[in-house]
Specification:
Pfam family, one: Phage_portal
Shape: extended
Protein name: HK97 family phage portal protein
InterPro entries: Phage/GTA_portal, Portal_HK97
Strand content: 15-25%
Number of domains: 3
Organism: Sagittula marina
Order of helices and strands: HEEHHEEHHEEEEEEHHEHEHHEHH
Distance between the termini: 99 Å
Number of strands: 13
Largest sheet: 3 strands, antiparallel
Strand order of the largest sheet: 4-3-13
Number of helices: 12
Helix content: 25-40%
Amino acid sequence: MGLMDLFRGRESAAPAANLRSEPPVTASGASNVQSATQWSNGYVTAGASRAGVAVSENSALSIPATLQALRILTGVFAMTPLHAYTKGERGRASADHLPSAKLFRESPNSHQTPFSFMELAMADLMLSGDFYAYVSRGNGFSPSALTRLLPGSVLPVQHFDRADGITVFYDATLPDGTRERFPSRDILHVAGFSRDGINGLNPIRYARDALGSTIATNQHTADFWGRGGKPSTVLQTSGKISPEDKKAIRYDWQSLYSGLSGESVAVLDQDLKAEFLTHNMKDNQMLETRQFQVVDLARLWGVPPHLIFELSRATFSNIEQQSLEFVIYHLGPHYTRFAQAITKAFAPHGHYFEHLTDALTRGDLKSRMEAYWQQRQMGMVNGDELRRRENLSEIPDGAGQEYWRPSNMAIAGQRPAEQETDNVEE
């Protein structure tokens, strides 16, 4: 038993009167819970789709539209700063000095930047439905490092009590190979769209047929061009050919005339005639099929089609509005999901985490300056606050600290002060 074990035991032995004490980690009835993917080294088992191809994480990432969609989602999500705030009488105030806030703004662990950690966390959420991280703690029981756990190596376990409801534990395999049951305070869990409130749904598993049809289409296209774009061939004759001769003729034809080279000349005997089976790509709507699959994948991953370069119907007349919709409707739920999970796990009472999306919703320079000017005239912000939004330094000697109020405005319900005027004789 180490020093931290003694500390944890002392903390859990005497909980405050107003706090709920967790049941023991070895909850009865839950010790034999197992999962088929629990110890699978983080890989979701591949399954066959109706198109006849196996769909797994690797095969899904081989689709260009999927790879680009995930790059967009994970990259934009990771570049959005996560701040800690405290609630006060005059509104919220920054609380980025908290140890947990520094994890997400400076260094989540010894080998990852905040961007790479959040990008990986978002990728796990999108591809497996859940993100898990082990919470290492230092002095004062404050979090000191976050270690990502492989998808499939963690299994949530429920313990139900009529008085307190459901308490969740986690059967997890750590990177050092040890397996243990951990309380929720030791595991940061962010679940995606869920049907039970605990486990996120795996998109690859539930959209297997949609991904499988796209993979099959890509394979068919690659195989066609792998044959040099030549259609299928039928060799026919009026005479009878034994099965052994058929195999020999087929082997000779494929070895001599298949592949990318189209310069070889076929010389046929035994009254053989070659007939080529034509493939009309236009009638088969190959291009339309591939375009539809890109849009279908955009629906699956929650990305506007124009962001994954499906521009067949793009006009760009309202690109600013589309970018705003991307932040609100596509990334907004993910921001809230992560921020509330981190708040629940780390924030002290009266504190919370929130993503700052101002940089993503900025308009063009002209629109931004007009909005700044209106805010300045209304007295909402001062000059230094506006300069910080543009990554500029403050005005020296406090000249940018003043707030403006138009002189022709007064407080509602009050009569304007009477001004003394001088009578000027004409």
